[in-house]
Structures are given as C-alpha cells and as structure tokens.
Amino acid sequence: MGGSSSQQAKPVHKEQTELSNRHESIIKTVTVPPTIFATKDEFVRIWFSWKNDFFVYLKNIDKAEDKKQMWGFMLLNRMGPIGQEIHRTFHFYGEDKNTLDIDILIKKFDLYCLYRDNKRGNKNIDEYIHELKSFAIARNYIDPTRIVKDKIIQDMSSQQFTGKAALLIESKGEKLIPYLQSLNLYHITLFWKQCEDLMTQKIDEIPKQNFQQNSTYAKSATTESTSMEQNQNQCTTIWGHQCQLCFPKLCCVHCSKHCKQFNYYTDNYKDKYIYDCTKCGMSHIRSRCPAYGELCIKCNKKNHFSKMCRVPVVINCSKCGMNHAISKCPAYGQICRHCNKLNHLEEKCRLAKCV
C-alpha cells in the first residue's frame, strides 16, 4: 500500500512542476521587452504592434505606474539608435514641449510611422486632409481625426506664410500652436484655408481711399518718435510703416528689438487703433484691418475672417449632411423626389431610409 501511494504521488508532483514551469514561462514572456529596431523600414512596418508589446512590458514592471515619468526615457532606450535618430527629427511645441513625456512621444512616433515626410504638395487643403484621414483609417488607427489634426499643426508650424497671412500668423506669436491645438479639425481647416487665401495678397494691398490718411498718421508718429530716439539710447530704426502693421508688438522690423517707448504711439493715437478687432482678431490701425475685403468661408459675407465669424454653424446638417452657416443650408428650397417634401436632400430623406 505504501509503495502504491508513493507511485501515485509522483505524477501529481510532476504535473505541479509542469504547471509551475509554464507559469514562469508566461511571466518571462510578458516581462521581456520588445526587440530593438534594426532599420527605419522595420520601424514603420512593426511600430504599432511593437508599441503594444512595450506597454505590456511597462505595465508588468511598473504596475502602480510609480515611475511613469521615466517611461519616455525607457521608450527611447529600448528603441535603440534607430528610434533615437527618428526622435531627433521631431519638433516639440505648444502643449507638446516635454520631449520625454511618454504620451507626447507615442503621438510623435505615430505621426512619423503613418506619414513620415508626406507633404501636401499641389493638393488643395480638403483633398490633402481627406487623403491623410483615409490613410489613418486604412491603417486602423484608433483616432484618425486626432492624428490628422496633429499632422496639420505640424505642417502649419513649418510653413512659410507670406503676404497678409504672415501678419495673421505673426499676431498669434508664441500662442499660435496652443491656439491651433485648442481648435477642432473643422476649425483648423478653416483657419488654414484663410491663411492660404491671405498669402495671395501683399501687405501693401490696402484700400486706396485710406492710404493718404494712413500716411499722415505714419509721418506724424515718425517725426515725434525721431526726436525721442535722439534723446534716449533707443533703437536707431524709427517707428514707421512696417512697425504699424506688426502692432501690437511695436517692434523694429530691421533689428527685432522691442521699442522702449511702447506706449508713446498708442497714447497719442488711441482713437486710431483697434485692439482685438472683432473682424480679424488682431490689433491694428483702424483703417488697415487685414480682413477688409476677405470672404468668410462660413457665411459667404465679406470683411471678416472665418475664425471670427459670429454666424452659428451647423455641423453635419441633418438636411444636407454638410457643415454650413445656419442660414445657408444647400437643401433649403429643394424638393425631395422620394417624399416630395421641401428642404432636405434625397440622401437625407427618412422615407428613403425606411424603404
């Protein structure tokens, strides 16, 4: 009996040993970090699956996330020279200034993997955005709208704007990127289109009837500011035509130094300036609004930028399926052939959907 009992115990012990070994094997596979990238092509090919494995690894070695502030450093270290080389090409700005924040790094690497050096080229803005979004969807990206928004901000931050668009961008200063990040994709698109339209217009393209009046203001300011510059060790470049246009900075365009007599011009010509204009969003001489003559994309009315439009906008209208000003629905007055009723397009007809 004793021998029989001993013989039966052996298989049980053997089975327990196998289970224990299997458990240890699972732990090892989970806690082993993913391999270092060998080439950039390999990075693009396996990044998304590699990223998932890396997070599994992180959450097993730091379950309480006590060292999460080190995750970004661990990511770069684990990626090896290839990942670090790609990281050096990134630009960090606005909310994304922390170069070692894990969430920011993941977003940057996602952007690189999806689009690499893809540029807009000769495509119009709508076509380009549609292409970006379609590509993200094709790659099963979890949030296509967000990644497209990040790509547009990246493109705009490196674009050289000219003409009136340069004034609009300059007026935002360091707040440009945070401003863009605060917008949704639809409004960023409108802002980009507005900038593109303004690039075709030179700064000197102002209403002729206002030119003589503005010249008088410029001469008066120039004469008085010259005497002040002689009395004080101020910048040798006097306030002139260009300084008026880049107001409210009031900086000397040629030397990029801020004028010490900042309040002089505004104190003497308060009635000639508009601060935070409701038409363009900038501060400028009353008769030199950059939005003058501009056509708003939202409401199709002139003399204000789309971003400053106060007309309520309908997103994904139930009558036409488009985005438009509340009073500009393309379906208004249209007769649906399915139900013979007014004010909606055929593809939005509820009767047709029921059929």
Automatic annotation (TrEMBL):
**Domain CCHC-type as annotated: residue spans:** 276-291, 295-311, 316-331, 335-351
Which Gene Ontology molecular function entries are recorded, alphabetically?
A: nucleic acid binding; zinc ion binding
Q: Where is this region: Disordered?
A: 1-20
Superkingdom classification of source: Eukaryota
InterPro entries for this protein = Znf_CCHC
The name of this protein is CCHC-type domain-containing protein
Origin species, per record, is: Acromyrmex echinatior
